[in-house]
Amino acid sequence: MPTDSLLVLGAYLLGSISSAIIVCRLMGLPDPRTQGSNNPGATNVLRIGGKKAAALTLFGDSIKGVLPMLVGHALDVSVTTLALTGLAAFLGHLYPLFFGFKGGKGVATALGVQFGLIVPLGLAVAGVWLFIAKGLKISSLAALVSMALAPLFVWLIWPAPELVIMQALMSLLLIWRHRSNIRNLLSGVETRIGSERGESSDDDTSTDR
User: Fold this and answer.
1) Residue 129: inside a domain, yes or no?
2) Is residue 133 part of a domain?
3) Range list of H helices, 75-195
4) Domains held by the chain: number
5) Is 192 within a domain?
6) With contact defined as beta carbons under 8 Å apart, do 105 and 42 qualify?
7) Residue 154 near residue 83, CB atoms below 8 Å
8) What is the mean pLDDT of each run of 10 residues along the chain (209 residues)?
9) N or C: which end of the chain has fewer CB within 10 A?
């Protein structure tokens, strides 16, 4: 199998490793798919297991996006392969092979892909997220706005059509996965950062990226 195909496949398989589920099992916590928002991401892990568990989940979900992109750079693959690699890692998180194709919402893995692709892109997206999250205390809104702007940032920083398309697809999928949060935002009932309302739908940011 060609190196490029192995890289894309490896990115998907790495993305399919659910950090939230593994961290909760190792720390003796409830399965995040059955507690709180039922979302296997770090925000829900924060809710059911605290900051340490959430930080480990955030790190794991982010590194799934960073590592394949760094390997791609090291192998000097084409821009097309880089784009496919990033998308594969993201899809692995959303639809993990090892966990019944039921994964998280993808913000942390998407941000990992962005940092792994080129650091200024990750900084731009993270900066928008932090600005909105700090000001409005709503992590799902911060995630939606920052990822909606991400294709524009890609176009400004590295205007390769393949990368812009990759990011546009990631952003659209992420917005789709946050549709319950969008309904809550429109209804004015979305959980704010620091809230302990476990019955609300989770967003995949703040710690759940």
Assistant:
1) yes
2) yes
3) 79-94, 107-117, 119-136, 139-157, 161-177, 179-187
4) 1
5) no
6) no
7) no
8) 91 96 93 85 87 93 97 97 98 94 93 98 97 91 97 97 98 95 93 59 41
9) N
